[in-house]
Amino acid sequence: MKDNYSLCLLYLYYDDYGAFVTIDIMFERPGWWSKEGIMDKNICIYQLATEFLEQIKPLDVNLDNYFLGDSRNYSSLKDIYIQFIRSAQNYQSMPNVIKFEERKDLISSFLFDYDYNQIKNLSSEDLYVSLRDAFNVGGADNNFNSWHKWSKSVVDSARFISDFSDVNDFETFVKLFDYNVSTRMALPLLISQKISGIGFALACDLLKELGFTNYPKPDVHLIEVFSSLGLSENNAISTFEAIVRMSDCCKAEDPSATPYKIDKIFWLICSGRFYLEKPEISVGRYKKQFIEYVKRKLPEKEKYLVAEKRIDELGKIIEPYWDSEIRNVRKDAPKEIQDAYRELFDLWDDLTTV
Questions:
Q1: Which of 5, 14, 139, 167 has its CA 20 to 30 Å from the CA of residue 98?
Q2: Listed residues 271, 292, 318: the one ending a domain
């Protein structure tokens, strides 16, 4: 017997007295259900998010370009190190202060051309003073100064990366954590403890940007959306778990639904920034509108959730008595089978009635 069932209505007609005559049922395993065979809330919201993004995106934008995420655009530990310190500045207003991409070549002169084996021996305080003087850094010399925080991250990142022999060694290390959501979550937690200035969300960001698609970045936008929709608590770790859970649920429907892709879908909705376009296109932020859209649409989606679950249960009951030639349950079917068949028909009729 197959594990799950969907109902395909092929024939439906009434006799001269208006009485129900027959419907045809097709038993099959539906690829778009979750692993338990039930379309759940995660899939409903994922579908609504993809629909909403399609509605707000500029006409000529190819969304697939934003969902790749696994290019692994690095060939050396130096490349990986550069991503670490790039992600270390991706906090609040720091990108506008550090301007790493704009000043990358200038900064390299203070960082031995990003040779982490030399950088690891630097004093973060001495590095901060050098950068402060070179870039006319204002503000107080304290732990809240963006350059001060970033200098610590630069040195700590060098010490962390220097523990690996090569790229393969680093990738093997990351894969050791990729057993389940709990072990996966342990890696960014470890990085956040080893590197000053890189918290859990930024550690997820650097892994995501290195091409490890099982790592979303639970930033403030995603935390607000997922918690507002009842998918997570209002914190980064719970949101990380919720994104991974959504990915697991949606893989049967969309094999490309990695945590990275889900991250991008929700981020594009919240930011409205289509940054791969030349020039970049901004359509405005749609976070609040999206939350309202889901809350309005979700009850209708969840109606199908409940109905599909019951159809699955009834399909299992009916199948042993199903006669494909007459497209009906056999005449010798017990009364409870006949009743199940009528309930199944009523459910289907309710689902298809506009």
A1: 167
A2: 271
